[in-house]
Each structure stands twice: as C-alpha cells, then as structure tokens.
C-alpha cells in the first residue's frame, strides 16, 4: 500500500474515532504493528492534540506512520488541521463534509491530505483538488455516514473514477474483507470498530465491553446535531433521542459550524468514552456484534494478515 511517502508493512489504516477513542495509545500501537495509525483531533483542545501527536512519535520512535482525523463540521476545523500540520504528521484525513481549503494547507505545509468520500463524484472532486488518496466509506461504517449504499457497491465505481489510491472502509473485520477490497482495486482498508476492542484503545473499559456485549441488530441510525445519520449501539441515550426528541443541553461548547441543538453530540460522545455507556453515544460499525474479544493490536493485525494470506 503506497500513499504519498507512506509504504506500511500491512495494508491497514486504523480509523480515526472521536471523541478520544483513538488517541496516541491506539494510533502508535497500530503504527508499531505495521499499519497506519490515526489520532482523532475532533472535540479536543488543540494543545491536547499536539501532546498526543508528540507522544505517538515517542511511542513509535519516529518510525511509524501517524495521521490526524478532523471532522469537517467542527468550528475549529482549520485551526486543528494547521496545528497537526505544524507538528508534521504524516497525513491529514477528513470526512463528514468537504473542505476545499485543506488541500491548499496541505501543499503549504507539505502534508498529504486524504478525503473520506462516499461516491465517485466526490472522489473525483477530491482528486481534482489535490487529495493524495481517498477513503471510500460504505453504509456499514460506524459514526457519521454519507451514504445508504454498501461499501462493495460503491468501491468499484470510485476505483474506476480516480487515479489516486483508494482505501476501502465500512464493515471491514477480517482478512477476507481485505482480500476482496484489494481484488476490487483498493490499495488497502481502513478499520475502526475492530480496534476499539483492543488493549491499547484509549476508550474506557466499559466502552470496549459494550462492543463485546453487542448482539446482532443492536446498532441503530441516529441523526446527530451535525445533520448526518450516525451508526451507534442502542442504549438509553439512543432511545432518548429517537425521532425528533430533544434533550436539554446543560453546557453548549459551540463546537459545530451548524448545529440543530436537539442534543449535544460532543457531550454525548465524551460521556460514553469516559465510561457512562448508557447515557452517551457509542458509535460502532454494522458488524460490531461479530467482535467478541479484546486483544493487543499486534495480535489483531497478525490474525487478520494470516487470514488475508490464506485468501
């Protein structure tokens, strides 16, 4: 898998999961295991992001590939991306909206920019604007979604449409999924949910356990205040915000460019990652019910690559 200057040993990028689910601990572990790690820069102070980038560099001895993911909908999107670029991350990745400016910043700082897309049309636009690669994310993904179509329906259209590397994402769990994606023209995959159930994931143990306890049919689509559908595990919180229900906002962080104020997405994500798993959002992919154990990142990647080699 060759993307810009990056040529990792295994064709796996770890998804950037916020708030505080994928920080320096998880990103560094994935990079040390031969993949590409991503720190989520969404919903955290910029100085905290800088600290985690530096910590990840220390944990990888400066040898692994570390990128930063930032949600386009955040008010401090530009400041966060520029701070990450100043720290000389290996790449920036962004989704849940589209920024033309970030490609120019990437050229200015010499940092590759990767866009998360859900259609061939958006992939072509990203390439035209200067993206080094695109992640095509299907309906099976966790978190904010940009499509109602399955990954393997969209993937061939995107591969056909662009000449830059394409990474497949959404519902990727096993080596066979990677083999299928690569056979269809992807250079590799992005995986988020599987790495939540890892020893090194930065989330609270209760958050990880919720993944293990999840059964088939336990995920639901909720409309977040960003304005997009998001896939999450059913709990008291998803029930409380079902339909057009509103929840009182105790403290507004003024974090989004545009917010419906139906509830606080940021606060709900912070609650869950800190361990209050019934009263916050727990984003997860559609196949989370197939994850049944917490393992070290190295073991997860080794198992997946053994499966891949058998395909």
UniProtKB/TrEMBL annotation:
<dbReference type="InterPro" id="IPR013785">
    <property type="entry name" value="Aldolase_TIM"/>
</dbReference>
<dbReference type="Pfam" id="PF03060">
    <property type="entry name" value="NMO"/>
</dbReference>
<keyword id="KW-0288">FMN</keyword>
<keyword id="KW-0285">Flavoprotein</keyword>
<dbReference type="GO" id="GO:0018580">
    <property type="term" value="F:nitronate monooxygenase activity"/>
</dbReference>
<dbReference type="InterPro" id="IPR004136">
    <property type="entry name" value="NMO"/>
</dbReference>
<keyword id="KW-0503">Monooxygenase</keyword>
<protein>
    <recommendedName>
        <fullName>Probable nitronate monooxygenase</fullName>
    </recommendedName>
</protein>
<comment type="function">
    <text>Nitronate monooxygenase that uses molecular oxygen to catalyze the oxidative denitrification of alkyl nitronates. Acts on propionate 3-nitronate (P3N), the presumed physiological substrate. Probably functions in the detoxification of P3N, a metabolic poison produced by plants and fungi as a defense mechanism.</text>
</comment>
<keyword id="KW-0560">Oxidoreductase</keyword>
């Amino acid at each position: 898998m060759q993307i810009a200057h990056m040529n990792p040993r295994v064709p796996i990028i770890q998804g950037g999961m916020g708030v505080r689910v994928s920080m320096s601990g998880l990103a560094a572990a994935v990079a040390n295991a031969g993949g590409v790690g991503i720190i989520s820069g969404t919903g955290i102070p910029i100085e905290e992001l800088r600290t985690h980038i530096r910590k990840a560099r220390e944990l990888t001895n400066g040898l692994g590939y570390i990128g930063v993911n930032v949600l386009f909908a955040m008010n401090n999107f530009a400041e966060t991306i520029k701070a990450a670029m100043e720290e000389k991350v290996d790449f920036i990745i962004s989704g849940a909206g589209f920024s033309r400016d970030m490609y120019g910043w990437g050229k200015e700082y010499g940092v590759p920019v990767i866009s998360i897309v859900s259609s061939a049309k958006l992939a072509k636009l990203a390439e035209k604007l200067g993206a080094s690669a695109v992640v095509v994310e299907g309906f099976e993904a966790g978190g904010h979604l940009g499509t109602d179509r399955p990954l393997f329906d969209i993937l061939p259209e995107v591969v056909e449409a662009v000449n830059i590397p394409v990474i497949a994402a959404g519902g990727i769990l096993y080596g066979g999924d990677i083999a299928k994606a690569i056979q269809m023209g992807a250079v590799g995959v992005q995986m988020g949910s599987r790495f939540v159930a890892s020893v090194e994931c930065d989330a609270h143990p209760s958050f990880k356990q919720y993944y293990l306890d999840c059964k088939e049919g336990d995920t639901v689509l909720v409309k977040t205040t960003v304005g997009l559908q998001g896939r999450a595990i059913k709990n008291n919180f998803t029930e409380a915000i079902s339909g057009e229900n509103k929840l009182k906002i105790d403290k507004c962080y003024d974090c989004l460019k545009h917010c419906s104020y139906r509830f606080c997405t940021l606060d709900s994500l912070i609650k869950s990652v800190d361990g209050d798993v019934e009263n916050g959002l727990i984003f997860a992919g559609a196949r989370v019910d197939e994850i049944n154990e917490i393992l070290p990142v190295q073991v997860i990647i080794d198992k997946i690559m053994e499966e891949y080699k058998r395909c």
